[in-house]
Amino acid sequence: MMKKLYILTAMLMLSLVPVMAQDVSRQESRKAKLEREIALLDEQLAQNASKSSALLSNLELLRKNIENRKALVKESEREIRRYNDSLYLKQLAINRLQARVDTLTSHYSRLVKSAYKNRDSRVWYMYILASDNLGQAYRRFGYFRNLSTRMKEEAVRIKAMKEELEVEKTRLAQLRKDAERVKAARVKELEKLRKDETAAANTAAKLKKEKKKYEAELKAKRKEVQALNKEIQRIIAEATKPKSPSGGGKVSQKDDPAAIALSAEFSANKGKLPWPVNGSVVAKFGKQYHSVFKNLELPANNGLDIAAPKGSQIKAVFNGTVKQVFVMPGYNQCVLVQHGKNYFTFYCKLGSVNVKAGDKVTTGQVLGTMETQSGNNQIHFELWKDSKPQNPEGWLR
Question: Which of 63, 185, 229, 391 could form a disulfide with 285 if both were Cys (CB 3.0 to 4.6 A apart)?
């Protein structure tokens, strides 16, 4: 029964190895991404620490950091559970090895006793001669002849088993250390989370005292968003307007086979497009409300606001043609890229631009660099299909 249990345990461990390896890889990737985002947001918060004008921005950064820290704590808890499972399975393996060592040692002990009792060769001969028949005599002779060999073989097996056992015990000790390290990191992360929550609450309390100021800022922000949307819609309408060529005139984008093919290729890459910059999403697509005054509805976000390291390069997410480079209040320089027949991407809040209207760009090509605005290192990114904004997170990998 015990042997069957050991076999089942071994089979279970072997079957779990590939699954656990995949889980570990995914978990480490998630943790690394969260840690990078937290470090980035911490850096921006440190830069804004002495700027009273950046309170609202700081609150948004803090809340995003709180969200990331909570996710990181959950990842740590998953890792701790994984370590506990590994410790349990490793202990089972050690118990199994120990049982085998004990069995072999007991068997070896009986062999040694038998060899000691029969150490006098005359006793061996008498034992063989006392056999009832030739077959029994031959078996007894074989037993004595192989006794020494068996003892040596058993001794070698026991030594190998004991060495394997020591290796497994060392691995178990290392697993315990790693598990304790993760637990300690989780405790520190929880402490940082509590500090961020306290800082967010204090910042929100300060902001509540200046409601009129932020209502005025909101009004100005609405105008900026409306102006940007109006300009984007104008450019798209111009880019997709059917042309009526006379004679050998140009074919419109809607009828151009190359544009249609590129548009289809862009569509086929939904969910696979690279990010325009490596960073953290601090404002998502869709309807938004004020961070403090929850009844104040902000202008709908037609894209994403992505925090990134200062001076980051902004890259095209797909092959296309630069339709226009323009400047908008609150958004600084913007680049509009058309991808075939009816897809467009917008990259705003750039300090410098490396392209001009009419340029062909390829996936990953640098369009420009991000500029710090009001203490924030963020870009605004939008993706449209014809005249309808799309949620970029559904398109980016």
Answer: 391
Are residue 194 and residue 219 in the same domain, yes or no?
A: no
CATH at residue 353: 2.70.70.10
Give the whole-angstrom CA distance, residue 44 versus residue 60. 11
Q: Single out the residue of 55, 348, 79, 105 nearest to residue 208, CA to CA.
A: 55
- Distance set, CA 180 to CA 81, 184, 185 (Å): 12, 6, 9
Do 155 and 265 reside in the same domain of the chain? Answer: no
Q: Which long-range contacts (CB under 8 A, 24 or more apart) does 6-13 make?
A: 6/96, 6/99, 9/89, 9/92, 9/93, 9/96, 10/93, 10/96, 12/89, 13/89, 13/92, 13/93
- How many domains does the chain contain in total? 2
The three-class DSSP label of residue 57 is helix
Domain check: are 194 and 269 in the same one?
no
CB atoms within 10 A of CB 176: 13
The residue range of the domain holding 102 is 2-208
The residue out of 156, 187, 208 marking a domain boundary is 208
C-alpha atoms less than 13 angstroms from C-alpha of 251 in its C-beta half-sphere? 9
Contact call for residues 391 and 271 (beta carbons, < 8 A):
no
Judge whether 281 and 391 are in contact, CB under 8 Å: no
pTM of the model as a whole: 0.62
**31-86 pLDDT per residue, tens:** 787 778 777 777 777 766 655 556 667 777 777 888 888 888 888 888 888 888 87
